[in-house]
């Protein structure tokens, strides 16, 4: 099939745009999926227990022809050819990552986003932790180190260099380094449930399938000041909120199943509740979160098609899916409940996928808690260090839980980023802008223009091709001598025009197109086993009839009215 690159595809009429996005996805699936395991390298795993009808803790035994696929600790894949994925060496520090952070990422003026609330940021980091993480401790014996620019304000303190630990990696002869995902790749709510027996055992009450909560109904807090839950790296109040909400939701689903299946064991209740809670989370991300981030009619239709299919429900009900023509079947009935498709490559998240989720600019400098009853501001304001890591507990436990959640629902201020972060256990201050840039270079994610070429987009010939805003072009030109040097993150943040309503660039969007379908299409529990036999009909109906407003309303009943003032819980609630 001939593929013509249409730079501003969002200007096409709806149906033509949907065809174009489908063709783009098909092209990306054919050209941009690469396994970093060579034949014979995949770990060997055997399956036991209830793996056929329940998700395993470590993600093994989802794809039964390769039970290690997507499991805890396996390698990231790539969306670019393996030979293009060598980490940078000669230009690793050029231009200086600190210059990019200070000159391009540090915003001087306040830029409020008025169309989404703070749940949007908390939600995506929660999902990111479900999908991936590199080893947060990195390599204590191996540092990346570069001199600070001459005019850097940090020089006044006597500091001359900036150092960060290298990512933990595996070296191979004759091919690029690979990096392991310390989480399961599957979309399985592992941050809530834990991914190893020891962690998981601490989280379970072992009564009626439920997860442990303290007397106040919230997650217990551990001696390190963080909630006792499955994954707490880069912890902050937003993550605590998400983990509490989804733990409560799991327990409510257990109540539902306990009523209809009083004979079920604790484990049966847990397994079914996990399946339902996990699928509901994936559905909300697909048909609510993504359309809130990318507020565009074409995108809304495309995301709904991924989950529900384009066919009207009554026709889908009349004619069961016979899976006769796979592509057509998926378009008409949706991915969920259909046949899996790996496009010949084992499922794994990719380094390029990690790169486009570097959304640190979504974080607010301060959060002022508001009273959910009347919208008034309380006296409790927290800056980043006060709402992050162990301090997150002060936000959650020194305020009413409903007030914190309400604040996230109505807050829509996204001012500056965190360019001097102190992380417990890390012996240096993190400039997250510089770190984000350097990590991509270290892990062999190409610079902006090369990335575009490899993902079938037209590369920029000059800085003016990246942005149609003259000030942005000037800023880029002040830092980069050559358009080929522009880093992926810098280019994506600068890129315009964008599709109407899009909070991300069209370049980053290519990765979304590929990954959004793939993480559903390759998972047995979203495809062949998304059935009443595995989930129960009650479970499938529960997923179908719920949205994020329903989850918030159920888990924090005080907010049921507030969250229903909007048609999508990620849009600012009306005060
Ligand atoms: C206060 C909240 C947050 C803190 C304290 C935080 C901190 C960090 C730190 C310390 C790292 C690792 C840096 C390194 O590579 O050495 C990191 C990585 C990352 N963060 Fe955040 N972050 C926060 C919020 C967010 C949010 C809202 C997102 C949105 C998606 C996000 C996305 C990422 C991604 C994609 C990575 C790369 C992960 C990897 O390398 O596997 N973070 N963050």
Q: Care to describe what's here?
A:
This protein has 575 residues and is mainly alpha-helical. 41% of the residues lie in helices and 7% in strands. The strands form four sheets. It has a two-stranded antiparallel ribbon. The mean pLDDT is 93. Residues 121, 124-125, 128, 132-134, 138, 164, 234, 236, 354, 357-360, 362-363, 384, 388, 423, 430, 435, 439 line the site of protoporphyrin IX containing FE.
List keywords for this structure.
575 residues; mainly alpha; two-stranded antiparallel ribbon; globular; binds protoporphyrin IX containing FE; oxylipin biosynthesis; fatty acid metabolism
Low-confidence stretches: none
Terminal-residue CA separation: 51 Å
Mean of pLDDT: 93
Ligands present: protoporphyrin IX containing FE
**What's the total helix number?**
24
Anisotropy-based shape: globular
Major sheet strand order: 1-2
* Strand-residue proportion: 5-15%
Q: Indicate the percent of residues in helices.
A: 40-55%
Extended strand count: 8
Structural class category: mainly alpha
Pfam families: An_peroxidase
Protein name: Peroxidase
Transmembrane segments: 6-23
Cofactor: Ca(2+)
Lay out the secondary structure.
Blueprint: H1 14-31, H2 97-105, H3 119-131, E1 139-147, E2 161-166, E3 170-172, E4 175-178, H4 190-193, H5 197-203, H6 237-260, H7 266-293, H8 297-308, H9 313-318, H10 326-333, H11 351-355, E5 366-370, E6 377-383, H12 384-387, H13 392-397, H14 401-410, E7 421-422, E8 429-430, H15 432-442, H16 448-454, H17 463-466, H18 470-479, H19 488-494, H20 506-521, H21 532-535, H22 537-544, H23 548-555, H24 560-563
Antiparallel strand pairs: 1-2, 3-4, 5-6, 7-8
Helix pairs in contact: 1-8, 2-15, 3-6, 3-7, 6-7, 6-23, 7-8, 7-22, 8-10
Residues 121, 124-125, 128, 132-134, 138, 164, 234, 236, 354, 357-360, 362-363, 384, 388, 423, 430, 435, 439 line the site of protoporphyrin IX containing FE (HEM).
